[in-house]
């Protein structure tokens, strides 16, 4: 398997943090710091209302601006939701789908994650589909079953030709925002498993080209080791993406 087939993706997930003015200020600070990161894609997924200000602040730089969720309907009576066409009209190319916080607090299921991912793909966006086990599931020894089922349902009905636009993020729920990172071996094991699932569903070529991220307390101190694993093609970074210095260290680790 050749890791050089894949462009690393270093993606920030700001969650519900930063007003538009704060977003612009953070990106203005970050812009020169990551300017030399040319071998990976740098992405910040920001709250919907920050997208415009973030894009303006990132203009002319190598920082891409993405969204944190998308609804599956194109329009309609879905108060509080945002459609794929609303995002693409703003020039958004990446969107997180199925983050564990959405599953845990907002009732999203494997089925709605699948619908949202397909809506993003149909609109020409790249969904970053999040999968991962809870601590109970890990302790019960059902990590592999859980993650492979989540991946299979998320990709159900996704045709092979759209797979080049799919990103999968392995985020063990117990590692998110807890400061407790998966070991490099745990991250590698599950990212490799996800690649095997894709191989089984599609083909070896599609699996080898798939970008698979690790997320969950990735930080300036542990990023280089995690990113060195053969099946870890980047990171989905929460807390550390709000700190320009830390995020820059992570982005530079992906260059090595
Ligand atoms: P964390 O969040 O880096 O703060 O653990 C990761 C995520 O939720 O995507």
Structure, described:
The chain is an alpha/beta fold. It has a single domain (7-18, 42-47, 65-253), classed as TIM Barrel. The chain has eleven helices and eight strands. An eight-stranded parallel sheet has the order 3-2-1-8-7-6-5-4. Helix 1 links the parallel strand 1 (9-13) and strand 2. Helix 1 runs parallel beside helix 2, helix 1 (20-33) packs across helix 11 (244-253) and helix 7 (143-154) crosses helix 8 (184-201). The longest helix has 18 residues, at 184-201. The chain is globular and about 45 Å long. 2-phosphoglycolic acid binds next to strand 8.
**How many structural domains in the coordinates?**
1
Overall SS class: alpha/beta
Strand order of the largest sheet: 3-2-1-8-7-6-5-4
Low-pLDDT stretches:
none
- List each distinct ligand once: 2-phosphoglycolic acid
The number of distinct helices, counting runs of at least 4 residues, comes to 11
CATH topology: TIM Barrel
Rg: 17 Å
User: Which sheet architecture does the biggest sheet show?
Assistant: 8 strands, parallel
Range of strand content:
5-15%
Superfamily at the CATH H level?
Aldolase class I
Count the E strands. 8
Helical residues, percent: 40-55%
Note the main attributes of this structure:
single chain, 256 residues, alpha/beta, TIM Barrel, 8-stranded parallel beta sheet, 41% helix, binds 2-phosphoglycolic acid
């Amino acid at each position: 398997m050749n890791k050089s087939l894949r462009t690393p993706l270093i993606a920030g997930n700001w969650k519900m943090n930063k007003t538009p003015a704060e977003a612009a200020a953070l990106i203005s600070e970050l812009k020169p710091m990551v300017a030399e990161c040319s071998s990976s894609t740098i992405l910040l997924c920001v709250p919907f209302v920050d997208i415009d200000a973030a894009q303006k602040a990132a203009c002319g730089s190598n920082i891409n601006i993405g969204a944190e969720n998308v609804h599956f309907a194109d329009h309609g009576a879905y108060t509080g939701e945002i459609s794929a066409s609303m995002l693409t009209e703003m020039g958004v190319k990446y969107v997180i789908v199925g983050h564990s916080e959405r599953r845990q607090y907002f009732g999203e299921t494997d089925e709605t994650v699948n619908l949202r991912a397909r809506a993003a793909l149909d609109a020409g966006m790249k969904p970053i589909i999040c999968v991962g086990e809870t601590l109970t599931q890990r302790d019960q020894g059902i990590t592999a079953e859980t993650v492979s089922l989540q991946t299979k349902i998320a990709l159900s009905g996704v045709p092979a030709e759209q797979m080049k636009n799919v990103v999968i993020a392995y985020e063990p729920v117990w590692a998110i925002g807890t400061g407790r990172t998966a070991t490099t071996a745990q991250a590698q094991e599950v990212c490799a498993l996800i690649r095997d699932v894709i191989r089984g569903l599609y083909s070896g070529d599609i699996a080898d080209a798939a970008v698979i991220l690790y997320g969950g307390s990735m930080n300036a101190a542990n990023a280089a080791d995690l990113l060195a694993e053969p099946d870890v093609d980047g990171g989905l970074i929460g807390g550390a993406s709000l700190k320009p210095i830390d995020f820059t260290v992570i982005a530079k680790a992906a260059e090595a």
